[in-house]
Amino acid sequence: MLIVGNGRMVTRDAENPFIENGAVAMEGNTIVMTGKLEEVKQAYPEAEFIDAKGGLIMPAFINAHEHIYSSFARGLSIKGYNPKGFLDILDGMWWTIDRHLTLEQTKLSAYATYLDSIRNGVTTVFDHHASFGHITGSLHAIEEAAGDLGVRTCLCYEISDRDGMEKSKESVMENVNFIKHVQQEKNDMVAAMMGMHASFTISDKTMELCNELKPEGVGYHIHVAEGIYDLHQCLKEHGKRIVDRLYDWNILGPKTLLGHCIYVNEHEMDLIRDTDTMVVHNPESNMGNACGCPPTMEMVHKGILTGLGTDGYTHDMLESWKVANVLHKHHLCDPNAAWGEVPEMLFDGNAKIAGRYFNKTLGVLKKGAAADVIVMNYNPLTPMRADNINGHLLFGTNGNNVVTTICNGKVLMKDREILVCDAEKVMADCRQAAQELADDINRGK
């Protein structure tokens, strides 16, 4: 038994959203009680106690779109890299990295990403992986890192024809084999999807192979209309818009997650909604790549299940929220935009997306939900109530405020100390691997 208490508790439970001096009791991987501190301690007097020291007690965060393979890009300088547009960024940076990644570097990239996620209070990660330098076994390597660190994760491999049809087929099989493995293991800490890069790098032949081989029970995780070229190529090559093409190939549906959706029109949004397909918004990436601003507010208003991700640009979901908040206000010239929509995406949308792949109820502190809890070091300057929680989080906190992270009932970090591995050694190994990767890229290996 474990109790976390003595703090302001933000539950995300509509029936009891805020408890001034709250506590949450966990048995195994499940929450068994929430309430006032004294009530919870009285009910479970023998439980181990973690003192929140007046901070915030909250459900752990969910990241609906990550890129583990991008971990070693931080500070990377590639000779001759001077992008003029999004395609140059893809080929010059991201595809260059993934073509050079070894299996060991992929695994260390996963350790780096999951460690940073833990430090930012993220315990569930939907990752979209690519390592065309070493495809087979890459998802198993990432799964091993997640298991070692105690993080919940949903994995897929990025199918693409960009490096030839043999590697495209190998990437299809990496998804198929990993999905079958996950379905056989029945470990609720690991899920799998059929990953795809984007329409413009996937031929009809590969689409047909995916349709033929995809196991039942899972959907696709694919970038959609992230850049304008994706749309133009689809219209030119296939005579239809991207979402229509995906619909024609049976890719849309309740288990499918569409990343970005920047250049989609009204008809496509209606098709996404009518097929109950999920969308994930990645504001920092869209701005950083100069790709444009998606009609995310309109998608939320249409009732499309929309979540929030980071696309590997950060592992701090609060940072992603802040960027989305100002992006849509600026883009729409509307100071009222994004106030309600973005926190709905982060706290409600992401939990519902995760609920389509994991059996445990995530993103809420209530009896029966997963024991995923964080403590944040935050002492509000102004009064904090149930009706102004989001204002405090948006303007008063970031991921560095997280001091304790618990996933599935296991304490992964306490008082900013990682408990599940020798973090210093892992980071030293990551630095060495990152240098080796940079050297290989710049030697043109």
Give an overview in words.
The chain has 445 residues and is of the alpha/beta class. It has 15 helices and 18 strands. The strands form three sheets. Strands 1, 2, 3, 4, 5, 15, 16, 17 and 18 form a nine-stranded mixed sheet that branches. A five-stranded parallel sheet has the order 10-11-12-13-14. The termini are far apart.
Helix content: 40-55%
Structural class: alpha/beta
Please summarize the sheet with the most strands.
9 strands, mixed
Distinct helical segment count: 15
How many DSSP E strands? Answer: 18
Parts with pLDDT < 50 across at least 5 consecutive residues: none
Question: What is the overall pLDDT average?
Answer: 97
Straight-line distance between termini: 53 Å
Shape: globular
The proportion of strand residues reads: 15-25%
Rg, alpha carbons:
21 Å
Summary tags:
445 residues, alpha/beta, 9-stranded mixed sheet, 5-stranded parallel sheet, globular
Write a brief structural summary.
This protein has 15 helices and 18 strands. With 445 residues, the chain is of the alpha/beta class. Helix 3 packs parallel to helix 4.
Helices, strands, pairings?
Blueprint: E1 2-10, E2 18-27, E3 30-36, H1 37-43, E4 48-51, E5 56-59, E6 61-66, H2 86-100, H3 103-119, E7 122-127, H4 138-149, E8 152-155, H5 165-185, E9 190-192, E10 194-198, H6 204-213, E11 220-224, H7 228-238, H8 242-248, E12 257-260, H9 266-274, E13 278-281, H10 283-288, H11 296-302, E14 306-308, H12 317-332, H13 341-355, E15 373-376, H14 389-396, E16 402-407, E17 410-414, E18 417-418, H15 423-443
Parallel strand pairs: 1-4, 1-5, 6-7, 7-8, 8-9, 10-11, 11-12, 12-13, 13-14
Antiparallel strand pairs: 1-2, 2-3, 5-15, 15-16, 16-17, 17-18
Helix pairs in contact: 3-4, 3-15, 5-6, 8-9
